[in-house]
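dumping this here so i dont lose it again. seq + smiles for zinc ion
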Amino acid sequence: MGETPQITTNLKMPSAMIKSADPSFWAARLLSSLSRVDVSRSCWTTLVALILPVLLLWALKRYRKMQDENRRPFPFMELPQELRDMVYENLLEDPVYPPPPPCQHQHSTLDWVIPGRRSSASAAAQRKHTSTWVFLASKQVYKEYMDLLCKKATFHLAVSPQNYKPLSTSTPSSPSSSSSSSSPPPPPPPDTRIWNLPQHALENIRTCSLKLVTTSAMLGVTDPRAMTSSSWTLGQRMRSQLKHMTSIKSFTLDAKALGDPLWNPLWIWYHASQSFKLMGTEFSDTVPIGPRLNKITFSLDTWSPGENYLARDEDKGGLWTWYCMKDHAVGADVGPEITVREFCGKLYQECGVCRPESDGEGGQ
Ligand SMILES: [Zn+2]
């Protein structure tokens, strides 16, 4: 009996739920809430419509300002000199005169399809020698960068059949100048310079490596026995340009002889070394006396048994001394009046350290 009231109370709840499940009741509630949402939404829309253009305008202004700032060049020249030098130092590359060809890579229409097509060697070659654009920035940057280059880099100067222009090329112009005696402009004096380097740069170079790649034709004579090293025209031209190198600390020469069926490479080595040995000494034929060489090496374009090299022995007052390929002293140089025969003897003199058993044999 006591259980029935409990049932009735339990029945009350579903009846209330049924009542509230009436669709009309819910529709009324939904409509009233929707009208409230509508009011607040229209409020928001107005607000957003007002704020959004303002925000957009602000963003646009900021973007334009940023663009303007990006477009303005970085005030590099306002940096202190030390900082500018630090930037330049990252760009330093040993200058090569004459400069190598810009890029030997053959451009192809397939390059854009396969980026990896470019060989790593050509890419490396392209990466190299890219800092010369700095020279074009301004006169001041040019001067500052050149100064640093002269102080810290090694200048590689070369004379080879590729850049050797005999002075006789100016002679064809002489008949034209004689025929055009009526025309007013006189022909400019022939440019005897070998490297396109300004004098102020030459004066500041500290380290230089000179490479002579010589053929017998470059000696400019038909019989090498008839010439003296000091009268070698190419040698004279080089000395007259190199004499401006007054700040040099290290200066080396590599005399490379290109094979020739008629001539012994000895003649090239002999005249090349003889014409530069006295540079920078009291016996120099230039004013100023020019830079003093520290080392002269000899090489061939083909295989060779290994030539000794010449270097100054600073312990003996800078006397020229012959060294083997493993840097053992082989003997002192004869002097400026060395003959070709003596030169040959020194060039191939056996080293007593490397080949002690042949020491007695060499003395015979
Ligand atoms: Zn040796």
